[in-house]
Write a structure and sequence with these properties.
By secondary structure, the chain is an alpha+beta fold. The chain has one domain: Endonuclease Chain A (Endonuclease, Chain A). The protein has seven helices and ten strands. Strands 1-9-6-5-2-3-4-10 form an eight-stranded mixed beta sheet, sandwiched between helices. It has a two-stranded antiparallel ribbon with strand order 7-8. Helix 4 links the parallel strand 2 and strand 3. Helix 2 packs parallel to helix 4. 32% of the residues are buried.
Length: 196
């Protein structure tokens, strides 16, 4: 009788430990880094951006933004109710190739820029954050050549693209830390407001 009880207790403990291991593997945070031009960071970014539909919120701080494909994706998300907060550098946002103007005066789109005082005071981040889902950071701006997505006169490949990286982090503590930093930037008193 004692052996039977001991066997049942051991079996229950093994089952409990197995369930805990499975649960920890399915909910474990991870990070993955991709490099352009070997990887097309534009496609990877869009894959992650679509996940903002779940939480209806997206925070972006992007130095250079000339990628019309990503701009169109942001328009799609805003049209489906995602509140999008975009923080830019005011010199970059006024560049003739910048696509932020595609997003101005669009419902659910909020755009501000740091009042750039010169080289030492620029907003140089290249991040986006989807609360509870992902924090993306790295050296890649949102331009086709930075993301490994550029083709020039039908010639595609590494010779037409920059060397950059993007890391996607799903750890909630990292995501929440990035959100706090984003709001500190967003709430600066001297920011320039493009769209409320």
């Amino acid at each position: 009788m004692k052996i039977k009880k001991l066997f049942i207790i051991v079996l229950i403990l093994q089952l409990f430990i197995s369930i805990q291991l499975i649960a920890s593997k399915t909910s474990a945070a991870y990070s993955a880094t991709y490099y352009s031009p070997q990887s097309n960071l534009q496609r990877i970014d869009i894959h992650w951006l679509k996940k903002a539909l779940r939480v209806k919120r997206l925070y972006i701080a992007m130095y250079s933004f000339t990628d019309k494909t990503i701009a169109r994706e942001l328009l799609y998300l805003a049209g489906r109710g995602v509140s999008i907060y975009i923080y830019r550098d005011d010199k970059q946002i006024r560049d003739r190739t910048d696509v932020t103007r595609m997003l101005e005066n669009v419902r659910n789109m909020h755009i501000k820029a740091k009042d750039d005082k010169g080289f030492w005071n620029i907003m140089h981040d290249k991040i986006f954050i989807i609360p509870g889902v992902v924090f993306r950071e790295g050296s890649a701006n949102w331009s086709p050549s930075a993301e490994g997505a550029s083709c020039w006169n039908g010639n595609c490949g590494s010779s037409q693209n920059q060397d950059n990286n993007a890391t996607y982090i799903t750890d909630r503590a990292e995501i929440n830390g990035a959100i706090r930093v984003f709001w500190r930037m967003w709430n600066r008193r001297n920011n320039l407001i493009y769209t409320k």
